[in-house]
Amino acid sequence: MYYISCRVRICYRSYERSFRARLAILPVQSWLAINIRATPHISPSTPLENTAMEAIITLQRFYIFCALAALYVFIGRFIQYWRLRQFKGPPTSGWSWWWHSRAVLSRALYWHYSNATDRYGPIARVAPNLLVTSDGDLWARLNATRTAYYRGEWWYHCARIEAGKDNVFTECDNEKHDQRRKKLAFGYSGKDNFALESSIDVHIKELVHLISSKYVTSSSGNEVTKPMDLAAKMQYFTLDVISHIGLGTPFGHLKTDQDVNGYLKSMEEGLWIATTIFGLGMNWLRNSPLGPSEKDQAGFGKMMAEARKIVEDRKAYNCWSIENYHVIHHEPSAGLHEAAGAEIDGAVKAGITAKNSEDIISEFEARRLPYLSAVIREGMRIHPPVVCLFPRVAPPSGDVVQVSGKEYFIPGGTMIGYASWAMHRTNKSVYGEDAETFRPERWLLDQEVPEEKQRLSQMTKINDMIFGHGRWNCLGKSIALLELHKTIFELFKHFDFALANPHQSLKAIDSMGLWEIKDMNVIVTERQ
């Protein structure tokens, strides 16, 4: 019995060695089977060997497929990297979108763009096919009236309100955009809309009345303070003005002192979703029917239904509210309040407007107040109201540009975006070494001195780009500036503002380049 057992073990080991030897040459056999149709005499002779060979062939085919796929991806990435190799940027930005996606999802994309241009130069690479620039001259060239550049669908279509439907803001075809713009321009220019200024005056009065009737705290200190979220009131004011001018009927936020039908809440939620989709690279979801619908009972869909009900087939374009940044965004200094207040008091004494009068100062008179204009410009510069990317796509033939005296070739199809924070807030080459300091006096230069006149002209040119430039200049620019001059004057004519908690900053979140401002709590007292 022992003898039989030993013979079995010997035979098994002999067979095992033979099988391993055959298995060792199977890769060669599989290669022959795949490439030259191996002849029958080298085919496996047992079912076990046949199964092993098939498994190895399948595995090798999988490896070959993976290798070819990896090679394809690598070649594609390398070509993308090589096209823009002359532009420096954050690590991995030339090979993947990881850096950019992470920046978008941080809700502080403006800061990352600024940091990139500060570190790598006025034109930096932030993704395989995306550059951003803080150079004002280059940005003006890309946005010129007859530019061959066009809007990047990758970003603009993510900002659509309705799936598959463009408006003047999201239209990427230059000719169609120009046609849409011409239809809307007259209504927003103020030249043919003679009721434009009076429409704004109505809502300034409503704003002043709302604050004086509900939120004024006695300066005697005998009553409980009444903190007011100034950001919310400014949003109410802006939506009422936009709806009045664009549709003929205001939504009524100021009269009710609330977010009518949840419009603002819906917009904030929509912006949050759009930012997340954009950051994850899932822009195709914006073309699905998941957005607001006119059948909704509240929110943005309800607003769409109301707008269509008031004026059929009419679309309105708006500039985001920016008054809240200038009234009290930064911790106020005594010097700033004294200077602004003195100019307003001087206007009252000069008879431009009466302190207790319900008459609103005219735009003409408001623009004659130099310090007020300086505060507005400096406020927009230190905290740009819109920090969107606004990508432009180079024409198919490419383009040669000059940045800081250096010549660059931009290949066709390359996207170039706008680094607003770096162009305005941290731009020391234009605004000086104290560029990050809020100092309205920088705009009060002596224009009789040629050097100061030239410097002011350059600062003004860059500052005006906050509202776009050339072909894509903001349609609502004149309305926004009209609101700013009149509203800030009237607010400071009637009230004094102080931060409710100087040690707690407001919440400012960047969503698709638009600001969500919350907790801008102030204490309001009547101006003596």
Automatic annotation (TrEMBL):
Specify which residues bind heme according to the UniProt entry for this protein: 474
The cofactor(s) it depends on are: heme
Q: Where are the transmembrane segments?
A: 62-79
Q: Which domain of life is it from?
A: Eukaryota
Q: What keywords are assigned to this protein? A: Heme, Iron, Membrane, Metal-binding, Transmembrane, Transmembrane helix
Record GO terms (molecular function):
heme binding; iron ion binding; monooxygenase activity; oxidoreductase activity, acting on paired donors, with incorporation or reduction of molecular oxygen
Q: Which family does it belong to?
A: Belongs to the cytochrome P450 family.
The molecule here is called Pisatin demethylase
